[in-house]
Amino acid sequence: MSEVGEFVQKPASLYLPFGVGPRACLGKELSVKMMKTVAINVVRRYEVKVVENQRVAMTNKVLSLTTRHGLKVTLKKRL
């Protein structure tokens, strides 16, 4: 999603854990659908806010992009 909420198509090579080309992971599509389903259900049921004044640093891992200290958020159940 872009900053204004529009869907942005990304190249398949961005998802390194799944590989690309003829040797791409067979479970890639299912994994991405499951990830989107979980994200949609969390956003639908909870108000998610990022905790302010935290230090966010990216790690240099080859297979996945993660934050060094995590990303702290608060969840408030929607009515």
TrEMBL record:
InterPro entries: Cyt_P450, Cyt_P450_CS, Cyt_P450_sf. It comes from the Eukaryota. Keywords: Heme, Iron, Metal-binding, Monooxygenase, Oxidoreductase. Belongs to the cytochrome P450 family. This is Cytochrome P450. It comes from Hibiscus sabdariffa.
